[in-house]
């Protein structure tokens, strides 16, 4: 049976030996001075003698401490390197993805069986994106059909395909043209897309007015309200394809295309990840097919 020294004390010993100070070691390890000092004393008692001695305002190793350092330092270096390798191998199997709930539920998730059939070794971790997604967030990719949020403009962006925007409503909803202006009783939108109607009018060349604007917390709620005949909604075509095919919605003014409007933002930590590259290739393929 091995009689090992207290292993939890070895990082405290190594950091103190390397930095020559318990205070500096505590700061590096994120511990208190007292906790590091206690671990070193415990290690010294277990090994039968002092490992450090005073040297001016700092500490220096005793001969027995130096013998321990020569063994512990390369051991911890090797363990740290192995841990990083193992973590990288594990992390390489995952893609942390931020995507809106509407795009995830209406477009991405129904297509994921095809991706998993091609790459069963890769797992996607889906997290819902909000109106603002900070650049330093802990994720790999953000996919979006809304020209990507301002917070992501400095991040590497990869075009995946066209984005197509149009007005959708229930088949019998009263959207009428009067004097060159399209008019509807209720216009549906969401808090983070209040400017979308103006942008669509500029892109499409259509003028549109409504008696009332109704704000829904999420885009999928606005689309649901449109299906129920409660107003007109502005949608990217991918999000309403099934509703259009089933006749639940119509797009009376058609769709206006934005080249490369469907994009992915790739975070720096994910640039060289094989799993991320494979997922981007797949996204580009299905988006390019009009999917």
UniProtKB/TrEMBL annotation:
The keyword Transcription regulation is annotated on this UniProt entry: yes
GO biological process entries: DNA-templated transcription
InterPro entries: LysR-type_TF_proteobact-type, LysR_HTH_N, LysR_subst-bd, WH-like_DNA-bd_sf, WH_DNA-bd_sf
Alphabetized UniProt keyword annotations: DNA-binding, Transcription, Transcription regulation
Coiled-coil segments on the chain, per record: none
Domain HTH lysR-type: 5-62
GO molecular function: DNA-binding transcription factor activity; sequence-specific DNA binding
Pfam families reported in the protein's UniProt record: HTH_1, LysR_substrate
UniProt cross-references to PROSITE patterns, sorted A to Z: HTH_LYSR
Signal peptide per UniProt: none
Protein family: Belongs to the LysR transcriptional regulatory family.
Protein name: LysR family transcriptional regulator
Source organism (scientific name): Pseudodonghicola xiamenensis
